[in-house]
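User: Hi! I have a protein structure encoded as tokens and I'd like to know what sequence might fold into it. I'm fairly new to this, so please keep things simple.
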């Protein structure tokens, strides 16, 4: 075990990461260091595996925890930490670290004992963290985690057949619309195009629909809805690239048709421009995520509506989803207390508290059925879209996808490139990167 731990330390200390962010800016990941400390992790998990009750770990004597959390969701974690301390008498210190920076910081500070005991990050960083030996598996609470949470969230926090995460929220995008301009949310993109022919006026900078046409994150419905995919076997097979499959090209036909009602270059669409036009009523519909909800509610009030993304080819649109989850640092001195916190801070009540504090979408199936969620017209719309979402692949090779596809999309949108030719090129670039090519 000592040699395994030494190998994980050496690999971790020499790694460099480039993290992925969901939403408006999705960046690629570096190739991972190939190492692990699964044996050592198992020993840590079981050394103090006394139970306070069936399925509940006994925390170590004198345990105290450090938890990393985003600034935006700090209010939730401060409150859940107080509840945890009151129940288990374990002090918890919350430190602000951006979720997209946490794997890098964990790789640097974990081996020296300076990192948090419990961390949170988007699931598409999971592969790099596991390959570096940074995480303990979620084994004690595996059965209840799987039982209580949606299938998509479990898929997102599982890597190479092992469950690592404790899901706490799902994140996807949906269709925002201005009810003063669009009386009823369109059911299909054919409906969107029909409306656009009556509303879009480029000279007046008025557009029926706007979204980031050059960003693969928001364009995944035009790849996946009719059968396309990024990687095969639920995102785990890097050698099966599906962006240029027949199914993807069928969905892309709808993408191309939408140029008629959004006749501007992809580079002229960014979050700030889109936000301003939607708030002013010059854009009637916007495909966007829950991070815009607060601002849009303030700007439009009762005129704001949210609905699932319109259908493509008669099928429900499949969006990308990101799963935010807690993970336990493999170098923690208090693995039992850390796992206990991760479970406590991700259960039904915790997810409903998180929704109350920051408007998140639960992954817990009972929480999704709570009146708090079902009676919220905005959150329930996002929750409905998550049912037709797919988690982004979490294997390290996902980092090789963003740049080629984000180059192909503007070629199609701006320059009328043939989708098959553009995506064939992108697929080859991804394959080359996966096989170690540097150019």
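Assistant: Happy to help. Inverse folding works backwards from shape to sequence: for each of the 439 positions I chose a residue that suits the local structure. Here it is:
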């Amino acid at each position: 075990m000592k040699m395994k731990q030494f190998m994980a330390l050496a690999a971790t200390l020499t790694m460099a990461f480039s993290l992925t962010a969901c939403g408006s800016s999705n960046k690629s990941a570096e190739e991972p260091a190939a190492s692990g400390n699964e044996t050592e992790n198992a020993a840590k998990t079981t050394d103090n595996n006394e139970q306070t009750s069936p399925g509940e770990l006994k925390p170590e004597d004198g345990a105290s925890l450090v938890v990393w959390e985003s600034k935006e969701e700090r209010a939730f974690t401060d409150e859940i930490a107080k509840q945890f301390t009151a129940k288990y008498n374990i002090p918890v210190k919350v430190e602000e670290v951006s979720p997209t920076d946490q794997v890098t910081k964990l790789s640097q500070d974990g081996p020296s004992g300076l990192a948090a005991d419990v961390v949170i990050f988007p699931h598409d960083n999971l592969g790099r963290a596991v390959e570096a030996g940074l995480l303990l598996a979620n084994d004690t609470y595996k059965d209840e985690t799987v039982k209580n949470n949606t299938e998509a969230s479990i898929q997102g926090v599982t890597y190479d057949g092992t469950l690592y995460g404790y899901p706490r929220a799902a994140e996807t995008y949906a269709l925002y619309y201005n009810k003063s301009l669009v009386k009823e949310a369109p059911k299909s993109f054919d409906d969107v195009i029909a409306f656009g022919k009556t509303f879009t006026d480029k000279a007046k900078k008025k557009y029926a629909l706007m979204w980031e046409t050059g960003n693969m994150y928001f364009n995944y419905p035009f790849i996946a809805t009719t059968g396309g995919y990024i990687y095969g076997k639920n995102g785990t097979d890097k050698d099966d690239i599906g962006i240029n499959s027949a199914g993807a090209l069928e969905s892309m036909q709808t993408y191309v048709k939408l140029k008629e009602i959004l006749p501007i270059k992809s580079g002229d669409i960014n979050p700030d421009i889109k936000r301003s036009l939607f708030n002013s009523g010059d854009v009637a519909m916007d495909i966007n995520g829950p991070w815009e909800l607060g601002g849009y509610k303030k700007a439009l009030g009762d005129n704001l509506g949210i609905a699932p993304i319109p259908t493509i080819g008669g099928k429900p649109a499949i969006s990308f989803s990101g799963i935010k989850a807690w993970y336990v640092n493999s170098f923690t001195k208090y693995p039992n207390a850390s796992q206990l916190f991760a479970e406590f801070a991700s259960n039904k009540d915790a997810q409903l508290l998180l929704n109350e504090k920051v408007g998140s979408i639960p992954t817990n199936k009972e929480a999704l059925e709570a009146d708090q969620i079902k009676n919220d017209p905005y959150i329930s719309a996002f929750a409905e879209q998550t049912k037709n979402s797919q988690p982004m692949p979490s294997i390290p090779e996902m980092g090789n996808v963003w740049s080629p596809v984000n180059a192909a999309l503007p070629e199609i949108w701006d320059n009328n490139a043939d989708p098959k030719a553009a995506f064939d090129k992108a697929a080859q670039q991804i394959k080359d990167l996966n096989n170690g090519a540097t150019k």
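A useful reference point when you look it over: The radius of gyration is 22 Å. Feel free to ask if any position seems puzzling.
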